[in-house]
């Protein structure tokens, strides 16, 4: 069955159910091995690194799962200045990062003009680097402006491809239709685009996951970001159980098999629920890691979920820690933009 999924680069609902529910360790071992072999076919033993700069935790949205949601009065809000962002890039560049990911809440302070100015400044100083934006839902015109200013990639997890599930996770002002519209617009403009979802978010079922996989087949993104949902104490989902590492690993493998060349990160959330989560993610078919480049004094304020790792570490520590972690499993962190290999 697993070989069939790899050959067809597609999966049925029944196959998904079996792979997510089985306790047969041998077949799951085979699934993960085949997925990491597939990643090797395209990317060898190389792991791409992205320097993550969490530049604002202000957000106008109120996503029920997220610790920086607008109505969380306990969030200690911050914004990085342009100088701080440039200084993150400077230390990141010296550490061998050739992709900078600017991520934040949907913060109206960062107007299109401001975003364009930051992107242009980074691209001017580091023309050999890729800039990825992850700043939420915007109009097609805004996305076009960011692209024209030099942005190369855009991460916007679709969160779930099922309408009813989407409504359970988001306030009524937000819609799945708009989220999908954004992703199609981004693709049309010419970005390398990443969608994705949390594993184990409240209300997620095998059926909704199947819809996620179908959406990924449809969109054909260059990147897919998945990580476990982890509850955050100041959100409406504070008491909801978190997603599991095992289900996340199996889904990473499945996504690799049905989308062999996709850029697939082993996320910080995966590293948060298990000390070896990111290593196991790579061994299940992931090929990207995203160490944090944000200044240490704001690290613990970008709290999307509880117990986030690495909040006290300097960028250099994260960088070398990651290199050692990858070495320990036979992988090499590379200094390159790490573009999609399609
Ligand atoms: N505002 C941007 C960035 C959001 S944060 C945007 O809308 O895209 C990046 C991702 O973190 C989200 O897409 C979500 O999937 C994930 N995230 C948020 N809260 C989380 C939680 N409690 N547990 C795990 N992941 C979470």
Written overview of the protein:
The chain has helices spanning 2-8, 13-21, 25-43, 82-94, 112-125, 140-148, 163-169, 176-189, 206-219, 245-258, 268-273, 277-282, 296-299, 315-328, and strands spanning 46-49, 51-56, 99-104, 130-134, 153-155, 192-199, 223-228, 288-289, 332-334. With 342 residues, it is an alpha/beta fold. It has one domain: Aldolase class I (TIM Barrel, Alpha-Beta Barrel), CATH 3.20.20. A 6-stranded parallel beta sheet has the order 2-3-4-5-6-7. Strands 8-1-9 form a 3-stranded parallel beta sheet. Helix 5 links the parallel strand 3 (99-104) and strand 4. S-adenosyl-L-homocysteine binds next to loops.
Number of strands: 9
Reading the helices and strands in chain order gives: HHHEEHEHEHEHHEHEHHHEHHE
Supply the CATH superfamily name. Aldolase class I
| CATH topology annotation | TIM Barrel
């Amino acid at each position: 069955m697993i070989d069939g999924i790899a050959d067809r680069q597609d999966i049925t609902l029944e196959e998904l159910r079996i792979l997510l529910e089985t306790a047969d360790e041998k077949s799951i071992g085979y699934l993960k091995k085949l997925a990491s072999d597939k990643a090797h076919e395209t990317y060898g033993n190389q792991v791409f690194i992205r320097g993550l700069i969490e530049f604002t935790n202000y957000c106008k949205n109120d996503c029920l799962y997220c610790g920086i949601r607008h109505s969380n009065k306990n969030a200690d809000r911050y914004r990085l200045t342009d100088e701080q962002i440039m200084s993150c890039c400077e230390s990141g560049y010296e550490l061998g990062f050739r992709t900078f990911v600017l991520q934040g809440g949907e913060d109206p302070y960062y107007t299109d003009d401001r975003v364009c100015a930051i992107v242009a400044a980074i691209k001017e100083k580091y023309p050999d680097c890729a800039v990825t934006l992850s700043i939420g839902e915007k109009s097609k015109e805004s996305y076009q402006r960011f692209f024209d200013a030099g942005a190369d990639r855009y991460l916007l997890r679709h969160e779930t491809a099922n309408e009813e599930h989407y409504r359970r996770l988001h306030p009524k002002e937000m819609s799945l239709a708009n989220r999908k519209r954004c992703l199609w617009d981004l693709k049309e403009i010419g970005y390398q685009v990443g969608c994705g979802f949390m594993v184990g978010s409240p209300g997620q079922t095998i059926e909704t996951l199947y819809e996620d996989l179908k959406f990924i087949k449809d969109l054909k993104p260059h990147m897919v970001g998945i990580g476990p949902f982890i509850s955050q104490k100041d959100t409406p989902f504070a008491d909801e159980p978190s997603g599991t590492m095992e289900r996340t690993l199996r889904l990473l493998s499945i996504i690799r098999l049905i989308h062999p060349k996709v850029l697939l990160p082993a996320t910080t959330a995966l590293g948060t629920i298990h000390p070896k989560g990111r290593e196991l993610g790579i061994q299940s078919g992931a090929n990207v890691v995203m160490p944090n480049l944000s200044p240490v004094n704001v690290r613990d304020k970008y709290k999307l979920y509880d117990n986030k790792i690495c909040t006290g570490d300097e960028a250099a520590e994260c960088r070398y820690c990651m290199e050692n972690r990858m070495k320990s499993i036979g992988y090499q962190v590379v200094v390159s933009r790490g573009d999609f290999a399609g």
